UniProtKB/TrEMBL annotation:
Residue ranges constituting the Protein kinase domain according to the UniProt record: 91-256
PROSITE patterns: PROTEIN_KINASE_DOM
Protein name from the UniProt record: Casein kinase 1-like protein 6-like 1
Lineage top rank: taxon: Eukaryota
Higher taxonomy: Eukaryota, Metazoa, Ecdysozoa, Arthropoda, Crustacea
Designated gene of the protein: Ckl6-L1
UniProt keyword annotations, A-Z: Kinase, Transferase
Amino acid sequence: MDLFDLYLTETCEEVRKGTKRGASPSSSSSPKMMKLVLAGEKLQAFDVPVPTTSPVPTTSTSPVPTTSHTHTREKSAPDVKALPQILWENLTYHKKIRSGMRGKTAHYRLTLESGETRNVVVKKLHNGTPLTEEATILQELDGAGGVPLLYGVTTKPYALVMALCPGITFTEAVMRLNRDQIKYLHDEVLSAITQFHAAGYSHQDLHGDNVIINTSTSPMECHIVDVGEAVKFSGVAEFDQKMKNKDSAFLRWLNM
């Protein structure tokens, strides 16, 4: 038994005797005291001096930033005022095009300052959020891959105004055309996707209903639309190639 154990045993015995005589254990305000509980007694607590050591300093470390090849768009959306502005009084409704869970599109006629009119698509979100990111992407793509040209944005309510791409969806075209026409169409769509990628973007939501085919022209025109989910390439070759493959995956079922 070392000196500390001996001292602790004697101290406990002294306190036990004092407790039986009705004495109350002395308390101490010293930080070097700790509470002990006597087993078999009435949870009687008393203070016993114990050796202390300086607390080990703890250091907080900032989390190590991790890198990922997954590309994400900037958090802050572009300012709507930085985009071309369109007045609602210059837009004339023609007909509905499509309505979905997030928003709707309609065919309008836009009157330019020169007095000329253009067929345009006006796209609005149900929650009223301005489509500034999609407008900026259209502006930067500038028609690459046949994407509609941007005319501008409106306010009160917010909407995106872009050129109307006439035609039918790629899915509908495949159902109507013969095999030779489909083969030609396959190559045209692949060419449009390549142009889209060359402009520095991956579509990320490309399928048969997001490609419009104008079958009334010769040769047929191809337009990639609905670019709201598009992202810029990361610069990492392996990851960028995966994004490119994803964009063209819907063409594989044609077996061309």
